[in-house]
Write the structure tokens for this entry.
Amino acid sequence: MSIDVNNESGTEVDEHAILDIARYALARMRIHPLSELSVIVVDTDAMEQLHIQWMDLPGPTDVLSFPMDELRPPGKDEDEPPQGLLGDIVLCPEVATKQGAEAPTQHSMDEELQLLTVHGVLHLLGYDHEEADEKAEMFGLQAAIVDGWRAEKGLTGPSPAPTVS
């Protein structure tokens, strides 16, 4: 996987963990190992501008995903997944800090950014949470990926509860 993490936020974040969980999520979803992904970490002003421009919604948000080649996980009977440009995920650590603190299982900004990275990857792969059944599928998959990554890393304690709306 070619994954670039670019922190433009001015806030120190665990870029290695973001890279690692993105790589884990893409491998778990059987995305071609030569596919490319970009993760950009921005401040609230930049996120607010993107949120208004692309979603026509006010205020900053936690994560935005901008798919490129609209890659999808391969079906069970497909041997070789297609490769390409997955797209961009944009994260906002200031929003992540607030959400992590307000979550039922309070957690750190970095834990929230890890969760949001997986959430963004799933959006790039075509998952959504507009309808109840889509939300159940996406959030279940998101939790399974985060839990699997945390177990692989030997991280203890409860996984962050989904705070993404």
